[in-house]
Write a structure and sequence with these properties.
CATH superfamily: Chorismate synthase AroC
Shape: globular
Strand content: 15-25%
CATH architecture: 4-Layer Sandwich
Number of domains: 1
Helix content: 10-25%
Low-confidence stretches: none
CATH class: Alpha Beta
Number of helices: 7
Structural class: alpha+beta
Mean pLDDT: 91
Radius of gyration: 21 Å
Distance between the termini: 46 Å
Length: 354
């Protein structure tokens, strides 16, 4: 099946299903000699894992990463880095009632139309559980970026109609991990939390927005014409489950501006698809989770209309657990472009003086 590998020089390939024995992946293209902090990788996973916030699913996975190859005594060998994350709390029986029924808003029917078969247990490969592998790859990419002084920080900017009122420049972004909702404003975070708890109690779900800020990115990242930095970031974000929108800089608000006004605004850190050296800032919009506790009309495999009452354990709002995923995909894109940028000029390929 194509579509399981992301990146050009720094590449991540993932495998596994939500209720299979394990998930895993291979990071290829990591430069030899990189000191890989495995504890830091695990910290990233802990921030995404089920149960990491009381506002999420009740599924309780430890998400302990096991590295199988490519690292010796904490140092990258330059060979493929293989890793495994075992599933330990899958309850496949919770999904038995979905063998012949398609869940509204999910990939159930489209997946079956494409492949002629699907894994009904939590969506199989289409499940957001796959993103755990992206977090591992992104955590390694983050350590490569740190050598260049690049920092990637994301936070929840909006839940439903509740949005942060202050710009990122005055927010304490590292404080997001002290917040259950991952928002760096305590007062508004409490309102967001209350809204999520409210919709959970109603058996419903709510969407939100994540803002990502990249500081320290060097000038010149991006490969026109089709691999512009903003285009690759857009692809990365839109590949995340439940994402419905991506905007950088002024985004859709640019429509209502005159050129004279827009030219004075922060560009979002990218011009002509190439990084400017300024902060890179973009927003990612997430839909309300499709699986809810309310009865919904749908169809079965015979095309008959049925009423579905979903069972299982699900997030009432995906954005708190999606923050490390957005950061991971951003790190993967930047690490890839950082390596690709080393081939942009002939002088970069000249023999080094010893």
């Amino acid at each position: 099946m194509p579509g399981n590998t992301f990146g050009s020089l720094f590449r991540l390939t993932t495998f596994g299903e939500s209720h299979g024995a394990a998930l895993g992946g291979v990071v290829d293209g990591c430069p030899a000699g990189l000191n890989v902090d495995i504890a830091a990788v695990q910290t990233e996973l802990d921030r995404r894992r089920p149960g990491s916030t009381p506002l999420g699913t009740a599924r309780n996975e430890t998400d302990k990463v096991e590295f199988l190859s490519g690292i010796l005594d904490g140092t990258a060998l330059g060979t493929p880095i293989g890793f495994l994350i075992r599933n330990s709390d899958a309850r496949s029986a919770d999904y038995d009632h979905l063998k012949n029924v398609y869940r509204p808003g999910h990939a159930d029917r489209t997946w079956e139309e494409k492949y002629g078969i699907r894994d009904h247990r939590g969506g199989g490969r289409s499940s957001a559980r796959e993103t755990a592998c992206r977090v591992v790859g992104g955590a390694i990419a983050r350590q490569l970026l740190a050598l260049q002084g690049v920092r990637v920080e994301a936070y929840v900017d909006q839940v439903g109609d509740i949005r942060l009122e202050r710009p990122y420049t005055v927010l304490d972004l590292p404080s997001v991990w002290k917040s259950d909702v991952r928002a760096p404003d305590e007062a508004i975070a409490q309102r967001m939390t209350a809204l999520i708890e409210q919709v959970r109690g109603e058996g419903d779900s709510v969407g939100g927005r994540i803002t990502c800020v990249v500081r320290g990115a060097p000038t010149g990242l991006g490969e026109p014409v089709f691999d512009k930095l903003n285009a690759d970031l857009g692809k990365a974000m839109l590949s995340i489950n439940a994402v419905k929108g991506f905007a950088f800089g002024a985004g859709f608000d640019a429509i209502g501006l005159r050129g004279s006004a827009h030219n004075k605004m922060h560009s979002g850190g990218i011009l002509g698809g190439i990084s400017t050296g300024e902060d890179i800032v973009f927003d990612v919009a997430f839909k309300p989770v499709s699986t809810i506790a309310k009865a919904q009309g749908t169809v079965d495999r015979s095309g008959r209309t049925v009423i579905l009452e979903t069972q299982g354990r699900h997030d009432p709002c995906v954005v708190p657990r999606a923050v490390p995923i957005v950061e991971a995909m951003t790190c993967l894109v930047l690490a890839d472009h950082l390596l690709r940028n080393g081939t942009a000029r002939a002088r970069d390929l000249a023999p080094q003086q010893r």
